[in-house]
What does this fold into?
Amino acid sequence: MNMVTGCSGIAEEDGVIFKAITDSSMTTKYVNFFQFFKVLSKMCHLGMTQKKEEEMRNRVTANNKSIAQMEVRIKTGKTIES
It folds into this structure.
């Protein structure tokens, strides 16, 4: 991943692959691969989106469990008061 990433604003931190495909002198060499890069980018974005969705789903599940536990504690507290 470090070899691919770029756009950090700091040229020294940009990956080797990012530097190679963004070098203006290499445009003609990589023009035939543009569609591949586009698809690869979309697939990476899709993968990150799915991972984020899974993480959010896990958070919701954990929060629902926490809410259920609190409801039990409240119900138990009310029973003890009675």
Notes: The chain has one domain: 11-81. The chain is about 70% helix and 0% strand. The longest helix spans residues 34-81.
